[in-house]
Amino acid sequence: MAIIATIKSGNDLVDRFAADRAAVTVKEFAKPFDQVHILVRVKATTAKGYQRLLEKAILPALGRFKVIEVTLANIAKLYHDQRHNP
Fold it and tell me: What keywords is this UniProt entry annotated with (predicted)?
């Protein structure tokens, strides 16, 4: 039904599908984020902690999702699942 509404509203589905395919996953986004932001902007011990969180919690839970697909519910589930980990 959403596809029909999109077509009726005059939006181009080909462009939408191309944009969806071009969107990066959380895993693909994590490496440049690590190199540009984590390693450059925080102290070494903080960077190691952030990298550990990425490797042990965030990427296993969200790495396969495209960044634009991650929802508040995904984040809440990750937070809930990690509540017992220090």
Answer: DNA-binding
CA distances from 71 to 31, 52, 77, 78 (A): 21, 22, 10, 11
What pLDDT digit, counting tens, does each position of 14-40 carry? 666 566 666 899 999 999 999 988 988
63 lies in a domain? Answer: yes
Q: Is 43 left (phi over 0), alpha (psi -120 to 50) or beta?
A: beta
Residue 30 inside a domain? The answer is: yes
Torsion angle defined by CA atoms of residues 7, 70, 37 and 24, in that order, rounded to the nearest 10 degrees: -50
Please state the pTM of the whole predicted model.
0.70
Q: What percent of the chain has pLDDT over 70?
A: 77
Number of domains in the chain: 1
